[in-house]
Amino acid sequence: MPSHNFQVNSATLVQRVAEKFKLQPELPGVIITQSTQMLGMISQIRFLEYMKLPENKKVYNRRPICELLDLISTPPLILSENFQINSAVITALNRPKQYVYEPLIIVLSNASLRLIDLHDLLLAQSEILRNQNKKFQEQMEKSRSEIPELYVEEEDDEPTGFLLDSKPLIKKIENKLKDQKNI
Questions:
Q1: Is 145 helix (H, G, I), strand (E, B) or coil?
Q2: What is the predicted pLDDT for the residue at 128?
Q3: Which residues, given as ranges, of the chain have pLDDT below 50?
Q4: How many Å apart are CA 101 and CA 93, to the nearest integer?
Q5: Which residues of 11-158 form beta strands (DSSP E)?
Q6: Taking a C-beta distance cutoff of 8 angstroms, is the pair 69, 47 a contact?
Q7: CA distances from 19 to 16, 89, 95, 96 (A)
Q8: Is 143 exposed, middle or buried (0-12, 13-18, 19+ CB in 10 A)?
Q9: Tens of pLDDT along 136-175?
Q10: 69 CB contacts (<8 Å, ≥6 apart)?
Q11: Which residues pair with 111 in a beta bridge?
């Protein structure tokens, strides 16, 4: 899953952050730190919206990024790298509406921080769901071929339903599909 390691010290000039965003438009945001502590995060979208006004550019371009932190930062959603993708999507989408599309911060096992764009997270969830659906379909086809007597066949040879109690088989399939990849 794509993640980004764009972190700057709180004393970094706003102009340098703007240059980095211009060079790497795929960056979802910037993490601002002081020593080894994270102070906050500013998304690229909020940064560019604020800095597109000439008066803001004039005032803040030569100032440290920490001055913008109080003005345009959002409360960051910080998750462990072991957080499941589906749970991360649900958590992100349950934020207040004005923050839903903000990047997430992932804490790796070595305590380093990474940014993940919500779009990339949703694409990963979609891929997982597609793979689970494919596995489910394959398992259903396998079950149908291994135990054809469970199905009632009509003249057109289309299965119309189970004859026997299929709950244990369905439960077994569902349990296999519950395994999800971690972030």
A1: helix
A2: 92
A3: 163, 180-182
A4: 8
A5: 29-34, 37-43, 77-80, 104-107, 113-116, 151-153
A6: no
A7: 5, 30, 30, 30
A8: middle
A9: 988 888 877 776 655 555 555 555 555 455 555 556 556 6
A10: 10, 32, 39, 40, 42
A11: none
